[in-house]
């Protein structure tokens, strides 16, 4: 599955946030027999439609889509020069599909800032620089070999050109992503084997004081620092507290600080979107469930997320939009009113499709 790697300077609240992520009960509640990797935090994607479906179908349980976060400790100033950017760090960050940078904005004289002062802009610059330098090292290491190869193999010339272009962007102090060279797109294809870090999308998490959670002027200022990347504002300590509470108490605590959902839920939503994912829904007496697919996935691809046999033996999908299902009140009524569509293998899944697959085994 797709994962988001969490990075940030020391003492910004990464461990606190990560504890909240791992205490989150999504996995424990829905997959009681799953082995839980201590370095992976799983957050359920909030989706009110699932509760509605569970009501309609009298489902025994609700299973949301998940977003996985991986703790990637170890980035400090000078890290790319070997002071902390260990192999494990590089491996973990390369495996991530997006990078979530946690930034300290909270003020607390008892918590030392590594650079002596709280400055989100400086922290962003520091981490960006380290990632850019790490990529530059990678590029400089492979370029001489590639250039040599290209002299004999003409088909390597396009790759050399792409790597040279990447080098120029990095030397200019820019991330490849900001220059439009983005992991998973054609522009990044010639660079694929280099596993460059700055081709990944970034999400910025500002760990703010509680009163800043509702300070729109402050938040706009921080947003401007990272735009067009997404910014999420949360208080890591509050998230850790929320993760320990039952729903009723959590809602009360959230309301007391002017919030309507935990920061982790917002983070899951933003993460999901940044990764280019969407969901479709299934519903029945056993469970109402959201399944994760890439945006633009076809019906057979969506079926394959449930089971590979569903994809291989795909015949068709019966699709009812969530709105139509709620309006008609049942699958039978939706069918009677012509709201249930039979879709074939070329159908592109839409957000909010409630689906039942027909397949051969
Ligand atoms: P890490 O080094 O980035 O993993 O940071 P930690 O999660 O270990 O946090 C460093 C210190 O900051 C700890 O003493 C935390 O209790 C404290 N801390 C974390 N988040 C917050 C916060 O939102 N507000 C305040 N005041 N302290 C925090």
TrEMBL record:
Listed binding positions for ATP are 11-16
Fetch the SUPFAM superfamilies from UniProt.
P-loop containing nucleoside triphosphate hydrolases (SSF52540), TGS-like (SSF81271)
Presence of the UniProt keyword Metal-binding in the record: yes
Question: What CDD domains is this protein classified in?
Answer: TGS_YchF_OLA1, YchF
Describe the location of the TGS domain by residue ranges: 276-359
The OBG-type G domain covers 2-254
- Which coenzyme or cofactor does it need? Mg(2+)
Q: Which InterPro entries match?
A: ATPase_YchF/OLA1 (IPR004396), Beta-grasp_dom_sf (IPR012675), G_OBG (IPR031167), GTP-bd (IPR006073), P-loop_NTPase (IPR027417), TGS (IPR004095), TGS-like (IPR012676), TGS-like_dom_sf (IPR023192)
Q: Which UniProt keywords apply?
A: ATP-binding, Magnesium, Metal-binding, Nucleotide-binding
Stored PANTHER family = OBG GTPASE FAMILY, OBG-TYPE G DOMAIN-CONTAINING PROTEIN
Q: Which NCBIfam families match?
A: redox-regulated ATPase YchF
Q: What task does this protein carry out?
A: ATPase that binds to both the 70S ribosome and the 50S ribosomal subunit in a nucleotide-independent manner.
The family annotation for this protein states: Belongs to the TRAFAC class OBG-HflX-like GTPase superfamily. OBG GTPase family. YchF/OLA1 subfamily.
Indicate what this protein is called per its UniProt record.
Ribosome-binding ATPase YchF
User: What species was this sequence derived from?
Assistant: Streptomyces hazeniae
């Amino acid at each position: 599955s797709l994962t988001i790697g969490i990075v940030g300077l020391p003492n910004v609240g990464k461990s606190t946030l990560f504890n909240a992520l791992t205490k989150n009960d999504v996995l424990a509640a829905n997959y009681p027999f799953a082995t839980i990797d201590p370095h992976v935090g799983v957050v359920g994607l909030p989706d009110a439609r699932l509760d509605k479906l569970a009501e309609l179908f009298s489902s025994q349980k609700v299973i949301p889509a998940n977003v996985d976060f991986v703790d990637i400790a170890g980035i400090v100033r000078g890290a790319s020069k070997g002071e902390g950017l260990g192999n494990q760090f590089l491996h973990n960050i390369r495996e991530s599909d997006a990078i979530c940078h946690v930034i300290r904005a909270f003020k607390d004289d008892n918590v030392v800032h590594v650079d002596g002062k709280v400055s989100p802009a400086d922290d962003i610059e520091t981490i960006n620089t380290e990632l850019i330098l790490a990529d530059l090292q990678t590029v400089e290491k492979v370029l001489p070999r590639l250039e040599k190869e290209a002299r004999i193999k003409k088909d390597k010339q396009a790759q050399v050109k792409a790597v040279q272009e990447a080098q120029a962007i990095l030397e200019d102090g820019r991330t490849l992503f900001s220059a439009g060279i983005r992991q998973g797109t054609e522009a990044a294809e010639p660079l694929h084997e280099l596993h460059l870090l700055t081709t990944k999308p970034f999400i910025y998490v500002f760990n703010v004081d509680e009163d800043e959670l509702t300070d729109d002027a402050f938040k706009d200022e921080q947003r401007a620092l990272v735009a067009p990347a997404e910014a999420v504002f949360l208080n890591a300590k509050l998230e850790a507290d929320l993760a320990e509470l039952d729903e009723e108490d959590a809602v009360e605590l959230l309301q007391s600080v002017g919030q309507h959902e935990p920061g982790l839920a917002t983070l899951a939503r933003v993460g999901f979107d940044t990764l280019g994912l969407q969901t479709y829904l299934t519903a029945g007496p056993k469970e109402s469930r959201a399944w994760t697919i890439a945006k633009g996935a076809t019906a057979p691809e969506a079926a394959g997320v449930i089971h590979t046999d569903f994809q291989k033996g795909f015949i068709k999908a019966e699709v009812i939009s969530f709105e139509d299902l709620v309006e008609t009140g049942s699958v039978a009524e939706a069918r009677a009113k012509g709201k249930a569509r039979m879709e074939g293998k070329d159908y592109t899944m839409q957000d909010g499709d409630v689906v039942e697959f027909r397949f051969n085994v």
